């Protein structure tokens, strides 16, 4: 049994993960592969799941957390449909990206994890998107919004909420 408080569905996922881990002779050597698989099953790697994996492969949990927090392709946060990255690199910051971040946070009503009240958006502050001449820049999934102003935030959010409604139809 695991430390995760599981529903039946979560228990099935955990059983799948355990069976996958058991296919490796040297589990610690394959930790990156195991973590990728775990994230594909659970969609993210919360601390409780990292602890379960640590116990399963006999590796210190702090070492697993170090791997998860080091590599950008792993996420400890729940994944939502739309990932909002507000660039706060120097060029974007001096052009007002902190204000943009604050407005997105307020409008989306994000919790301490950066997840919107409706569970549709995750708000992140990132160092640099490499589009300094276009700043301030906001990226939602793969779409870049350039020269974003405070007045554009509501329209951007509405665009994605309307897209979500259309996708549900």
TrEMBL record:
Cofactor binding, note field: Binds 1 [2Fe-2S] cluster.
Record-listed [2Fe-2S] cluster binding positions: 87, 92, 128, 132
Coiled-coil blocks: none
Class of enzymatic activity (EC top level): oxidoreductase
Top-level division of the source organism's lineage: Bacteria
Cofactor requirements of the protein: [2Fe-2S] cluster
InterPro entries for this protein: NADP_DH_HndA-like, NuoE-like, NuoE_dom, NuoE_N, Thioredoxin-like_sf
Family: Belongs to the complex I 24 kDa subunit family.
Protein known as: NADH-quinone oxidoreductase subunit 2
Species this chain originates from: Urinicoccus massiliensis
Lineage, top ranks: Bacteria, Bacillati, Bacillota, Tissierellia, Tissierellales
């Amino acid at each position: 049994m695991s430390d995760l408080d599981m529903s039946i569905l979560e228990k099935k996922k955990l059983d799948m993960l355990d069976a996958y881990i058991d296919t490796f002779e040297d589990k610690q050597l394959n930790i990156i592969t195991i973590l990728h698989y775990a994230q594909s099953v659970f969609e993210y790697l919360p601390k409780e799941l990292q602890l379960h994996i640590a116990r399963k492969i006999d590796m210190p949990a702090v070492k697993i957390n170090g791997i998860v927090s080091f590599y950008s392709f792993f996420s400890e946060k729940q994944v939502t449909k739309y990932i909002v990255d507000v660039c706060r690199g120097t060029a974007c910051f001096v052009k007002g990206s902190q204000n943009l971040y604050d407005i997105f946070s307020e409008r989306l009503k994000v919790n301490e994890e950066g997840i919107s009240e409706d569970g549709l958006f995750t708000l992140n502050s990132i160092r640099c998107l490499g589009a300094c001449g276009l700043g301030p820049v906001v990226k939602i999934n793969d779409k870049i919004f350039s020269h974003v102003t405070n007045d554009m935030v509501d329209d951007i959010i509405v665009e994605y909420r309307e897209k979500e409604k259309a996708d549900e139809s």
